[in-house]
Amino acid sequence: xSQDQFVLPGDIIVTGDYQPEQNVILDGDRLMxxxxxxxxxxxxxxxxxxxxxxxxxKTDDLVVGKIVSHNALxxxxxxxxxxxxxxxxSDIFGKDYSPSRDDLSLKLNTGDIVLxxxxxxxxxxxxxxxxxxxxxKIDSGELVxxxxxxxxxxxxxxxSMIQTIEESTNATITVGQNGxxxxxxxxxxxxxxxxxxxxxIGMIQxxxxxxxxxxxxxxxxx
Amino acid sequence: MGGREANVVLLDENGIRSxxxxxxxxxxxxxxxxxxxxAGGSAYIEFGxxxxxxxxxxxxxxxxxxxxxxxxxxxxxxxxxxxFSVDERKKPAPSRREIEISxxxxxxxxxxxxxxxxPRTAIDxxxxxxxxxxxxxxxxxAAASVALADAxxxxxxxxxxxxxxxxxxxxxxxxxxxxxxxxxxxxPIGYMPNLGKITLLQLDGVLTTDEFKKCIxxxxxxxxxVYEIQKSALREKYFSSGxxx
Lengths: 222, 245
What we know:
The structure holds 2 protein chains of 2 kinds.
Chain A (H helix, E strand, L loop, with lengths): L4 E3 L4 E4 L3 E2 L3 E4 L2 E4 L3 E6 L2 E6 L11 E9 L3 E5 L6 E4 L1 H4 L10 H4 L5 E8 L6 E3 L6 E3 L3 E4 L5 H19 L2 E4 L4 E5 L3 H16 L6 H10 L3
Parallel strand pairs in A: 3-7, 10-12
Antiparallel strand pairs in A: 1-6, 2-5, 4-5, 6-7, 8-9, 8-11, 9-10, 11-12, 11-13, 14-16, 15-16
Helix pairs in contact in A: 3-4, 3-5, 4-5
Chain B lengths: L28 E5 L7 E7 L2 E12 L12 E8 L14 H14 L11 E11 L4 H15 L9 E8 L2 E4 L3 H6 L2 E8 L4 E5 L2 E2 L3 H30 L7
Parallel strand pairs in B: 4-5
Antiparallel strand pairs in B: 1-2, 2-3, 3-5, 6-7, 6-8, 8-9, 8-10
Helix pairs in contact in B: 1-2, 2-4
C-alpha cells in the first residue's frame, strides 16, 4: 500500500503499529479512515485531510462570520460550522459593559459581516473575538464562499497562490479558515479575475496542476 | 406471503427468475453522489426499478430543543414515499410502514456515524422514494450512507444493503416486487463491509435454520457488490479520475 492515497470512510489505510490522528480510527490493529480525503503517514502518525464537510473550529483561526442575532450579553455569529460563534458584548464594550446602558444593536446589527478570531473552544459554543489587528466589522468587499476543505489548497506554500493572485490583480484577499473569503479591489476587472480564481480553487476536485489553471485565468484578456 | 399470486412463475426450470435474473444476481444498481446543491450531502440511487433521492443536513441545532443530547449528536431519518411512487396514489402523510422504515434505517446507520463528535446537534437524513419496486429500504439505506459520506460526516464505515429471500423454494438474492408479493421470505440486510458487522436484519416469512444461514450468506454477498458501487460513486465525485487506488 502506498504512503499517500485517496480514502473513503471505512477504508483501511494501514495495518500495524501506528497512531490514529485526525479523521482516523483504530479497529484492532487496522487504521481506518472516517472521511473522504487524502491519507498521509508521517512516522507513526496517520492522518486524513478531508475533502468535504463543514468547518471545524480551531483556536486562533481567523474566520469570517455573519451576525445572526443578539441577546443582552452576546451576538450569535454564523461561522459556517456545526455551532454558532459567540461574540460577547464585553469584547466590544469592555469590562464595564452593562446591558441596561449599552445597546448591542448600535455596534453590530444582524446581517453584518465580521472578521474574527476563534478565542476559546469550551464545552459550549466557540467564543470568538474581534479585538486585534484588522479584526472587526467588514464594510466593503466581495464575499466568496468555498468549501472549508479547500482552504488549505488556497493557502498552501505560505500563501504563494494568494500572493500570485493579489499581485496580478491588485486585489487584497482576506481568507477566513471557515471557507469565507473577502476580496477587495479598486478596478472591477481585477476583482472579477480574483473572484474567478478563488472560485476555481473552490470548484475543482483534487488536481495537481492548480497553479497553471489560476495563471490562465489571470492571464486572460489582459 | 405464501403465494398470493399463484399464476406468476417466479423461477423457471432453467433457474431464471421472473425478470430474467439468476438466483444469485442483483438488479442493476447505479448511484450518483452529490446531486443536490442545497443539501449538505446527497445521493441518488437506482436499484432496479427503485429510484430514491437522499439528502443530508447538519450537524445542526436540534429543534425541538428537548430532543438534543449534551453528550452526543442525534441522527434522524425520514423515509418518505412520493404519492406517485406506486401504482395507486399513495397518501403523502407518513404511514405506519414509513415510520417503521425510518426507524430501522436510523438504527442501521447509527453504528456507522460518529455522533459523539457533535454533541447537542442533529443530523437529518431525508429519503424520498420517487419510484418503488420492492426492496426500497435497502436501496434507501445504501443511498443514505453515500449521502452522509458526501456531507463529510465522520463515519466508521459505509453501510451497504441488499436483500435476500426465498421464492419458489429457492434462496434468491435481491428480492423484487413480484417475488416479495408472491414469494416465501424476504430478508433485508444492512452491512458494514470493512468492520464486518450487520446493522440491519429483518425477516418476513418462514425459513429453516439452514435456509436462514444461506440467506444471510447470499445477502452479504449482495451487500459487498452494492458496496463497490457506493465506493465508485464517491470516487467519481471526489477523485476525478475514478480509480486512484
